[in-house]
Design a protein that fits this description.
Layout: H1 12-40, H2 80-134, H3 141-158, E1 162-164, E2 176-182, E3 192-197, E4 199-202, E5 205-208, E6 210-215
Parallel strand pairs: 2-6
Antiparallel strand pairs: 1-4, 3-6, 4-5
Helix pairs in contact: 2-3
């Protein structure tokens, strides 16, 4: 008589639990494989349709750009003694340049004075000749002085100065200085009736105003 151990039959609940555990393990392994494959695959940005602007999320972040262009410049080491020597040299050169320009300006000024004086020497010579002939013939002095005066006026014109001595012109405070106002028959009120001292001007401006007498308004 044989004694065989009867095979135990597992309950249905145990079999269902084992199947659930096996299925969960299989799903977890599958998800792990998908994650590993996604990590190994390089990320490519989403394609943007032609004619449309990429969104802010598609643009590369500024933190992703290389920081080489933002590196601070390397300054050379400063030597105090070298800077002091350069400063002293610059001050000395500036002072020498100022003195040289002053000498040049003085030379130009003296040369201009000599030129103008040389131009006036013939006028002085003719005045001296007129005075020498005055003792022999006093009447000849007047024509001689008139000729010297015309020569002086011509010289002033050559130097670029215009004479202001017109009678009958309206009074202009820009070029005239009224010394007196008087009644002048036949003269328009406000016009110049006499030039007491001629004035001169040039393209650079007024040298001196003309001193004149002006006709007054007739009294009613």
């Amino acid at each position: 008589m044989s004694h065989e151990r009867p095979e135990r039959t597992r309950p249905a609940e145990d079999r269902a639990g084992e199947e659930a555990v096996g299925s969960g393990t299989t799903q977890a392994a599958s998800r792990a494989e998908d994650a590993a494959a996604a990590a190994a695959t390089p990320h490519t940005p989403a394609e943007v349709p032609e004619g449309s602007e990429p969104s802010d999320s598609d643009r590369p972040s500024s933190t992703d750009r290389p920081a080489a262009g933002r590196e601070a410049p390397v300054l050379p080491e400063l030597d105090v003694e070298d800077l002091r020597d350069r400063w002293q040299r610059a001050v000395a050169e500036t002072e020498n340049l100022r003195k040289r320009y002053e000498r040049q300006m003085d030379e130009v000024r003296r040369a201009e004075q000599d030129r103008v004086t040389a131009a006036w020497l013939p006028v002085v010579d003719h005045l001296e000749l007129a005075l020498q002939h005055a003792a022999a013939d006093p009447k000849a002095v007047i024509p001689g002085v008139e000729a010297v005066c015309q020569q002086a006026h011509a010289l002033l014109a050559q130097l670029g100065y215009r004479r202001i001595a017109d009678i009958g012109e309206p009074f202009d405070p820009a070029v005239h200085e009224a010394a007196q106002v008087r009644e002048e028959p036949g003269a328009a009120p406000g016009n110049v009736v006499q030039v007491l001292r001629a004035g001169y001007d040039s393209d650079r401006g007024l040298l001196r105003p003309a001193v004149v007498s002006v006709a007054a308004k007739p009294q009613e």
